[in-house]
Write a structure and sequence with these properties.
Blueprint lengths: L1 E5 L2 E2 L5 E6 L2 E7 L1 E3 L2 E4 L9 E9 L4 E4 L4 E3 L12 E5 L1 E2 L2 H9 L7
Parallel strand pairs: 1-10
Antiparallel strand pairs: 1-2, 1-6, 3-4, 3-7, 5-6, 7-8, 7-9, 8-11
Length: 111
């Protein structure tokens, strides 16, 4: 569970965060906006102890960003909980290939 921003700016409903291990999409979820804060609850399919990289798709700007650091995760592990939510800060523009995977990857399709 986390609070997400892009370069310190609150994200918008309809934006998406996707979780990857390498080039494999493991989960994706839309942003939830509540009282001026953007939240995410994201389930990711894990095969064991692995490092996730999170990517953010800004639907209104049609731009993508990634987190600088990876997140260590494993099967059944919960990261963040209320009130100690993870701070998910996205700032690094991501490549066209990654954005295509977010938009039409095998587990998530924008319609």
């Amino acid at each position: 569970f986390g609070i997400s921003t892009v370069d310190g700016v609150i994200e918008e409903e309809g934006d998406i965060i996707a979780a990857y291990v390498g080039d494999e999409l493991r989960g994706a979820q839309s942003i939830i906006l509540h009282e001026g804060v953007s939240y995410i609850t994201l389930n990711a399919n894990m095969k064991g102890d692995e490092s996730l990289r999170l990517y953010y798709w800004d639907s209104s700007e049609e731009k993508g960003y990634s987190m600088l650091n990876e997140i260590n995760a494993s099967i059944g592990k919960t990261l963040g909980s209320y009130p100690d939510l993870l701070n998910l800060h996205f700032s690094t523009p991501c490549s066209h290939m990654i954005l295509t995977l977010i938009l039409v990857g095998p587990f998530y399709l924008l319609v």
